[in-house]
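This part of the workshop introduces the protein records we will be handling. The structure tokens are whole numbers drawn from a learned vocabulary of backbone shapes. The record below serves as our worked example for the rest of this section.

===
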Amino acid sequence: MSAPQQTRWTYAARGDETPRSKWRIGTWLLLALCFIAFYAIYFSPALLKHVLLAPGDGEIYYLPLFRLPITEFWNDLILSGYPVAFDIQAMTLYPLRWLSPTFNTLVISAYVVAALGMYGLCRKLTGSRLGALTGALVASGSGFMLGHLGHLTIIHAAAWMPWVLWAVLAARDASWRPVALGAAAVAMCVYGGHPQLTVISLLFSGSYALFLAAATAREFDWNVALRYLLRITVLFAAGLLVAAPALVGLLDSAGQSVRAAWSINDFASFSHDFLSLRLLWFPNLYGVYGPGPYGYYSGPFNLTELALYAGIGSWMLASLAVIAFHRKFAIWFWVGGVVMGLLLALGTATPLGELVYRLPVLGKFRAQARFGWILIVSLSVLAAYGVAAVMGGRLQARGRWGAWSRCPKARRGCW
């Protein structure tokens, strides 16, 4: 049996209907320009005053590295110096850094990349343009991305996870083109410069690939699933091979890091607890950094790491998605992503966190709240499904939920 071509399983929101045709490059360029304009307007209060988008670590660490010439491989700003090319967070080998004329351009490009990747993933899954736009804006404009504004490598490494997920999904169509594009996305995720977000992104994308392989075997047969897994293996292997220049330096320096003797307290730092999870729905509960009607922040340390707000409307749309598509096998991976991201963000507050601490690689990272990016991406996909369900009329025959979906005032109240 031949591999599935845009199956009904993939396009859950449209049933058996497949997208009309592949978008042309010009259409994607126009979409990219729209996202660029959106974030240029969003950050315009700072841009118009020539303020650098570099709060906290952005000014202290990333800005000086950005100002180093790309051809300079030795950094003498610290003690007697060190090979800056081996510092993956310097982003020396990152193509978007080469193409960015200013620091602010490089910062904004992360949000545009994240939005484009989420749009492509949600469009592929739901077949809904409005749903895809919703998912793109929810993820790229989430508290995670905006809270880490000063962490340049975090937002860039995170921005490529939707692209890897999109490629993993598209590889089911028995084509090698998504494999090549996915390998490029994997390499860009590594070159983005943050090992923790890279590991999280690759593990989550790999889990999605295994889920899709099981779904393919369930819908077709294991021969099709094994051919799909072969393409996925090539995708990840090729991407890591392209990223080898950055990985060699990273692996060499990792053995000399203080994290070789990381304690469980170090591991659990900057993680959520059960009380701080309220920030997911009430982001100003403990106040804000700076003057305002909510008062100064007085909550758990620190808000930059704990910010995972993605809007109340996103959760309501996700609930509608589960109601409308609860019989679709595809939807439950993203529900699981929300649950798993939430549990992992709690760190050692649950037994799962203590298990992760004992794992190689993952146990050497702090700030477990960064697993919240899995939650954000999964929630954004579910929100896209929710929009597709409302627009497709799937809730009209479901009693009070149908009445809710047909009521314009109720829908406006969710945003």
Observations:
- Confidence is low (pLDDT under 50) at residues 1-21, 400-406, 408-415.
- DSSP finds 21 helices and two strands in the chain.
- The two ends are 45 Å apart (CA to CA).
